[in-house]
Amino acid sequence: MGYPQGEGSDSFDASMKDESYGGQQQYPPYRDPNAQHQNPQYPNTQYQNPQYPNPQYPNPQYGNAPYAGGYQAPASTNTLAIVSLVLAILGLTFIPLLASVCAVVCGHISRGQIKRTGEGGAGFATAGLIIGYVSIALFVVIVGAIVIFAIAAANTSTY
What are phi and psi of 102, to 5 degrees? Predict the structure, then answer.
């Protein structure tokens, strides 16, 4: 396969490598950005940090800022509050009356401890109390309904 201009007819002339091509402007020569810049108009272009002393207004010397606190460990959660909530849930599901009564007792004791010591867990204690009381009320209603239906069934005549 031949070249359109023929073998050996190269339009590039090595002697004209620094001249502009096709009327385009050449780029300026590369300068190292890390090299020291010397400008004849301004002999010293190094940035200096001159001190401007002003005896009328001296620079104030500030000390370190006082320690304003930082990360504080969160308040520990009262254990009886967690026990109250767990017992209240057990009172709703597996052990109806016994766990609910224990949840109410633990909830009241933990609320008193939380007020006295400032521990966390007031929400757990309150939830344990509410669920415990609701569980006791449901137990009383269900047992009362069973007793009423049993009495009504016993008094029913077969005539």
Answer: -65, -35
b (16+ CB within 10 A) / e for 99-127: bbbbbbbbbbbbbebbeeeebebeebbbb
Residue burial 70-80, b: 16+ Cβ < 10 Å; e: rest: eeeeeeebbeb
CA distance 149 to 132: 26
**Which value, to the nearest 10 degrees, does the dihedral of the CA atoms of residues 150, 155, 156, 157 take?**
150
Distance CA 47, CA 49 (A): 7
Q: Whose structure tokens read 């009262």?
A: 78
The count of residues in the chain is: 159
Q: What is the dihedral of CA 140, 146, 147, 152, to 10 degrees?
A: 140
Model pTM score = 0.55
Distance CA 74, CA 79 (A): 15
**CB 141, CB 96: distance < 8 Å:** no
Q: What is the pLDDT of residues 45-86, one digit of tens each?
A: 455 545 655 556 555 666 666 666 678 788 899 999 999 999
User: Distances from the Cα of 25 to the Cαs of 20, 22, 28, 57, in angstroms?
Assistant: 6, 9, 9, 56
